[in-house]
Design brief:
Elements (H helix, E strand, L loop, with lengths): L4 E4 L2 H13 L6 H23 L12 E6 L4 E6 L6 H9 L6 H13 L4 H8 L6 H4 E9 L6 E6 L4 E7 L5 E8 L14 H12 L6 E9 L15 E8 L16 H12 L7 E7 L5 E7 L16 E5 L2 E7 L11 E5 L9 H6 L1 H24 L1 H15 L9 H4 L5 E3 L2 E6 L1 H7 L7 E5 L3 H5 L5 H6 L3 E4 L4 H7 L2 E2 L2 E5 L10 H17 L1 H11 L3 E6 L8 E4 L7 H9 L9 E5 L4 H12 L5 H16 L7 H14 L1
Parallel strand pairs: 2-8, 12-14, 17-18, 17-20, 21-23
Antiparallel strand pairs: 1-6, 2-3, 3-7, 4-5, 4-7, 5-6, 8-9, 10-11, 11-14, 12-13, 15-16, 15-18, 19-20, 22-23
Bound molecules: adenosine-5'-diphosphate.
Adenosine-5'-diphosphate binds next to helix 2 and helix 3.
C-alpha cells in the first residue's frame, strides 16, 4: 500500500477554496448542510449498491449520519456509514471539482468581483459542496473506507493549495469528516459550531427532510441528586453521553401539502437543486388508484448558467418507497421542461429497475405526461393571474419552454404559454390568445415575421402593407423562433403565416379581389420588363413580380409558402446541416416611381445597360434591408458609385 503522498489542488479548486474562506459573509452555516447532504448521498449510494451486491449486508447496521464536537480540541465531526471512497476516489473527488461548470464559475466570480457584485449568490448557484468546509475550518481531515474493502484512507488539507493522502483507520465502511474549526466570530456570521443548540438549529433548518437519522452527540453533566431531587453535596458530577436524532426524516413530498410551510419547501428545493434562492413555483402532485405515486416539483426562480449547454443534465429524482433509485431521471421530464427540479416517489415501481426498463415502462411514461401537464397548468395559471410575474418567468425560461411546440404530444398545451414581441406594443409581449382577441374584421390569419431583433424586423419592408392595414404582426426574434415558426401552424383555428412568404391578401373578400385584379393588370403591363430583370438575376432569383405587400419601399425578397426562411437557412448552415440553396422571389412596389422610371428606359431601349445595373442594385438593396449578406459586395459598391457619378 502506498504511504502518504502530497498533491496540489487543481487550480480552480484552489480558487474556490480561497473564495470560500474570504468572500462568503453570510449563511456560513451552509457547510453543515453540504456535509450532511454528501453523507446522505453516500448512504443512498450504499443502499442502491446493496440491491445488487448482497455481501454489503445492510441489515446489520442502521444507516445514519452522526454529528459530534469536541469543544476543547475545537473540532466538529460529521460521520456516515455510507459507501465511502477508495484512495483513488478520495484523491479524485476531493482534489478536483466534480461540477463541469467550475471554469464558468471561476469566470463569473472574477466578473462579479470586478463589478463588486454578489459572489455569494454565485456560490449558491454553483453548489460547491465539500469545499464549503473551509468556511468554518482551517483544516479538514477525512477518513474514509469504501464499502466492501478493508482499507481506509486519510485525506487532510489546510486549504493552502495542497492536500495529503495516506493510510487511515476506520472500523467499518463510510466516511468521517473532521473540521478543525476556526475561532468563532459571531460579528462576521461565524457561529460557534461546537455549541449543541447551534448545531441542532442548523441541522433542523437545513436537513430536516434527510431520510436518514442525523444524530447529534449530546453530553450532559449533572450533579447526582438524592431521593427528593436535591443535589448531593460533595458527590462527583456524572456525565452522560447520548446520540439524539435531530431531524424528523419525513419525506417532505409524502406529507400533506397543507401541513408544510413555504419555507420548508424552499429548504428542500435548495437541498436538491443547490440553488440559493427560493423556487418560483412549488407544485405537489399525488396520484392514487391502481398506480400510485407522489411528486413534488419546483420551477426555479432563475436559470442555471448551463441550461443551454449540450451536456446539461436534467431530470427528477426518482424514489421507490423513499429509496433513491436515480438522481436525475430524465425519463420523467420532457426536455423542454429541463429547468424543473423535483422528486417522484412511487411504491409501485420495482426497486432494481434499470435504465432500459425505466425508458420502456409505460407507467414512467404516464408519470412524465402527468408531471408535464401539471407544470403547464401551473404556468398557465401564473400567466392568467399575474402577468408581470409570468413575464419574469418567461424572460428566464421562455426559450426552453418554447421548444415544447416541437413536441407533438404537448404542442397544443404549450402554444397558449408562448409570449412574443409584437407590433401592438413597444415593450410588452403578447400571447397568441391576446393577439387573436385583437384581430379585426376581415383578418383571417395570425401574422409573424422572423429576424434577429425587434429593431431589425420592425423596419422590414415586409410589414408595410400590414401596417397600412392596421394588422398586428408578431416579432419572432429569438434564434430558436425560426424553428418554432415551422411548428406554429395554427392557433385557435387560425393559420399562422409569415409576412415574408407567399402572396399577401389582406382585407375583406371584396378588397382582396380588387387588389388582386389591379396587381394582375399592372403585372401584365410590366411583364416584359419584369422578364428582362428576371433574366439578369436568374442566378439568384426564381421570379420577379409586382408586390402587394409594399407601400413605401421599392423592393423586397419573399419566399414561397413552403420555402425555408433565410434565417432558418443560416441557422441550418451554422449547425453544419447543408441546406439546399433556395432561390427567392424579388417583389417590386408597383406604386414606386422607380418602376415607372425603369419602364421608361426599357421602352426607349430594351438593351439599355443601365437595366442590368438596376436589377443588381435592386437585388442588393433587398438583401441589405433584411440583413442578409451581399453575394458580391465589391460589385455592388462599384455599381452604386457609377450611379452616383452619372447622377
Ligand atoms: P458534489 O457532492 O456536489 O458532487 P462535493 O464537492 O460535495 O460535490 O463532493 C465531491 C465528491 O466527493 C462527491 O461527489 C462524492 O463522490 C465524494 N464525497 C463527498 N463526501 C462524501 C462522503 N461523505 N462519502 C462518500 N463520498 C463523498
Amino acid at each position: 500500500m502506498a504511504g502518504t503522498e502530497t498533491f496540489t489542488f487543481k487550480s480552480e479548486a484552489q480558487q474556490l477554496l480561497d473564495l470560500m474562506i474570504h468572500s462568503l459573509y453570510s449563511h456560513k452555516e451552509i457547510f453543515l448542510r453540504e456535509l450532511i447532504s454528501n453523507a446522505s448521498d453516500a448512504l443512498d449510494k450504499l443502499r442502491f449498491e446493496a440491491l445488487t451486491e448482497p455481501s454489503l449486508r445492510l441489515d446489520e447496521q442502521p444507516l445514519q449520519i452522526r454529528v459530534s464536537t469536541d469543544a476543547v480540541a475545537r473540532t466538529l465531526t460529521v460521520e456516515d456509514n455510507g459507501v465511502g471512497m477508495t484512495r483513488e476516489e478520495a484523491i479524485q473527488n476531493l482534489g478536483t471539482i466534480a461540477h463541469s461548470g467550475t471554469r464558468e464559475f471561476a469566470k463569473r466570480v472574477a466578473e462579479a468581483q470586478k463589478a463588486e457584485g454578489d459572489t455569494e449568490r454565485l456560490i449558491g448557484q454553483f453548489g460547491v459542496g465539500f469545499y464549503s468546509s473551509f468556511i468554518a475550518a482551517n483544516e479538514v481531515t477525512v477518513v474514509t473506507r469504501k464499502a466492501g474493502t478493508d482499507e481506509a484512507t486519510r485525506w487532510h488539507s489546510a486549504g493552502d493549495g495542497h492536500f495529503d493522502v495516506g493510510d487511515g483507520e476506520r472500523d467499518g465502511q463510510g466516511t468521517t469528516v473532521t473540521l478543525h474549526l476556526r475561532d468563532a466570530d459571531p460579528d462576521n456570521g461565524l457561529a460557534d459550531f461546537t455549541a449543541e443548540w447551534t448545531l441542532r438549529e442548523v441541522i433542523k433548518r437545513y436537513s430536516d427532510f434527510v431520510q436518514y437519522p442525523v444524530e447529534l452527540r449530546v453530553t450532559r453533566t449533572e450533579a447526582p441528586r438524592d431521593e427528593e431531587g436535591e443535589p448531593i453535596e460533595g458527590a462527583e458530577p456524572t456525565t452522560t453521553v447520548e446520540w439524539k436524532t435531530v431531524n424528523s426524516m419525513k419525506a417532505i413530498w409524502a406529507r400533506d401539502p397543507a401541513s408544510v410551510t413555504a419555507e420548508e419547501y424552499a429548504e428542500f428545493y435548495k437541498h436538491i437543486s443547490h440553488d440559493w434562492e427560493a423556487p418560483f413555483e412549488t407544485i405537489s402532485l399525488k396520484a392514487e388508484g391502481t398506480f400510485e405515486y407522489r411528486s413534488l416539483l419546483f420551477v426555479p426562480s432563475r436559470a442555471p448558467f448551463d441550461l443551454f449547454y449540450r451536456d446539461y443534465k436534467f431530470g427528477l429524482q426518482l424514489y421507490v418507497n423513499r429509496v433513491l433509485i436515480k438522481d436525475r431521471a430524465d425519463e420523467l421530464l420532457p426536455e423542454w421542461l429541463r429547468f424543473v427540479k423535483g422528486v417522484v416517489d412511487s411504491p409501485d415501481l420495482s426497486l432494481n429497475v434499470s435504465r432500459e426498463m425505466l425508458q420502456q415502462d409505460r407507467r414512467v411514461g404516464k408519470i412524465k405526461k402527468k408531471v408535464a401537464k401539471k407544470i403547464v397548468d401551473t404556468l398557465a395559471k401564473v400567466q392568467r393571474e399575474d402577468r408581470d410575474r409570468y413575464a419574469d418567468f418567461w424572460g428566464k425560461f421562455g426559450r426552453v419552454l418554447k421548444e415544447g411546440v416541437t413536441d407533438f404530444e404537448y404542442a397544443d398545451d404549450v402554444k397558449p404559454l408562448l409570449m412574443f414581441l409584437s407590433s401592438a406594443d413597444a415593450e410588452k409581449s403578447t400571447s397568441l390568445a391576446e393577439y387573436v382577441d385583437r384581430m379585426g374584421e376581415g383578418q383571417e390569419a395570425i401574422y409573424f415575421i422572423t429576424g434577429e431583433s425587434r429593431a431589425a424586423v420592425e423596419k422590414s419592408p415586409h410589414l408595410e402593407a400590414f401596417r397600412a392595414k392596421g394588422y398586428e404582426v408578431l416579432y419572432l426574434v429569438d434564434p430558436i423562433d425560426e424553428i418554432i415558426a415551422g411548428h406554429l401552424t395554427t392557433f385557435a383555428e387560425k393559420p399562422l403565416k409569415s409576412v415574408g412568404k407567399g402572396e399577401v391578401e389582406l382585407g375583406t373578400e371584396d378588397e382582396r379581389k380588387k387588389a388582386e385584379e389591379a396587381r394582375k393588370a399592372a403585372q401584365e403591363a410590366h411583364a416584359s420588363l419584369l422578364e428582362r430583370l428576371q433574366g439578369t438575376l436568374d442566378e439568384h432569383i426564381k421570379a420577379v413580380r409586382l408586390s402587394s405587400r409594399l407601400t413605401e419601399s421599392a423592393v423586397c425578397l419573399v419566399g414561397d409558402e413552403a420555402d425555408l426562411s433565410p434565417g432558418l437557412e443560416r441557422l441550418l448552415e451554422a449547425s453544419g446541416q447543408a441546406a439546399p440553396k433556395q432561390k427567392r422571389i424579388l417583389e417590386l412596389n408597383p406604386a414606386h416611381p422607380l418602376l415607372a422610371k425603369m419602364q421608361g428606359i426599357y421602352d426607349a431601349d430594351r438593351e439599355d445597360a443601365r437595366l442590368v445595373d438596376f436589377a443588381h442594385l435592386l437585388y442588393g438593396q433587398a438583401l441589405l434591408v433584411e440583413g442578409s449578406p451581399l453575394p458580391d459586395p465589391v460589385a455592388f459598391g462599384r455599381r452604386v458609385a457609377d450611379l452616383m457619378i452619372k447622377a
